Amino acid sequence: MAVTAKLVKELRDKTSVGMMDAKKALVEAEGDIEKAIDLLREKGMAKAAKKGDRVAAEGMTYVMTDGDKAAIIELNSETDFVAGNKEFNDLLVAVTKTILEKQPADVEAALALPVAGEEDRTVNDKIINVSQITGEKITLRRFATAEKTAGEVFGAYSHMGGSISALAVLTGSNEEVARDVAMHIAAIAPQYVSDDEVPADVIAKEKEVQLASEDLNGKPDNIKEKMVEGRIKKFLADITLLDQDFVKNGDQKVADFVKQNDMTVKSFVRYQVGEGIEKQTTNLAEEVAKQINN
Fold first, then answer.
1. Where does the record place the region Involved in Mg(2+) ion dislocation from EF-Tu (predicted)?
2. Could you say which of 16, 38, 88, 276 has the lowest number of CB atoms within 10 Å?
């Protein structure tokens, strides 16, 4: 049986091993994916054959800065228990440091990088190793990197033990102000810096929704337009950072806070663990019964 790219991907998804290891195992197993899994398990490279089928929706985010470079990542595990242990936390720091230093283009490129300080193994190798130790699927879900100039400053903040992290780039030099802005981003979850960044289709969609509101039925078109215009302004104020009420002082906008400190916000990234991942729900009684009956 031919070893196709699709087969290699399927084996990687099931076992979390590297691309070359997956390909070698499939070649040795003549394309039989179950035999390839057994071969990898025999070599200690795949602790659980079905690990790739599990959902890793817990974990931690982490943000790190060093000079003019910064990185923010989300590393996932299956349970928050594993996310809290030393092996996972050491992995989190090592992966973030590697990404910060090398600034890779995407997750695939990041996984292929030698680990900072451990040049004999890749990020993917280290993730597999910790996955074997913990018995859980661990994945590098996403990351973002940033660079700043001499006239700029990073704002970095992690909330609730890493469940949420934010990284912002601001012009100016006040690191405390930058951190306060990052704290606000973590707490309030804006989607854009300002109105100018909101895509036209997002505004059009919201306008469509508002025009269809039941409370506008029967009202003259000119009244509808004025009411919808006001609602769009409120919508934009809710999702844009500069228009939001500052979390540490509700009497001023974020825009006013940064302006009074002679700063401007260039960009930001906010990660919250598991956002957008559909978590598996399990019935404990059913799981126990299943184990007893097997």
1. 79-82
2. 276
Instruction: Say if residue 80 is exposed, middle or buried (CB neighbours under 10 Å; 0-12, 13-18, 19+).
Output: middle
3-state secondary structure of 262: coil
Question: Which position has the token pair 């928050």?
Answer: 80
Question: So what's the pLDDT on residue 269?
Answer: 98
- Determine the Cα angle at 132 with ends 145 and 73, to 5°: 10
Burial 221-256 (b: 16+ CB within 10 A, else e): eeebeebbeebbeebbeebbbbbbbbbeeeeebbbe
Q: Looking at the predicted structure, is the pLDDT value of residue 232 above 80?
A: yes
CA distances, 116 to each of 76, 97, 100, 194, 285 (Å): 20, 7, 10, 36, 44
CA distances from 287 to 4, 13, 99, 278 (A): 36, 24, 39, 20
Domains of the chain, first to last: 5-53 (1.10.8.10), 55-147 (3.30.479.20)
Report the 10 Å Cβ neighbour count for 43: 12
Q: What does the mean pLDDT of the chain come to?
A: 87
Could you give the count of Cα atoms lying within 13 Å of 80 in the half-sphere of its Cβ? 7
19 CA to centre of own chain: 23
- Is 154:168 a contact under the CB 8 Å cutoff? yes
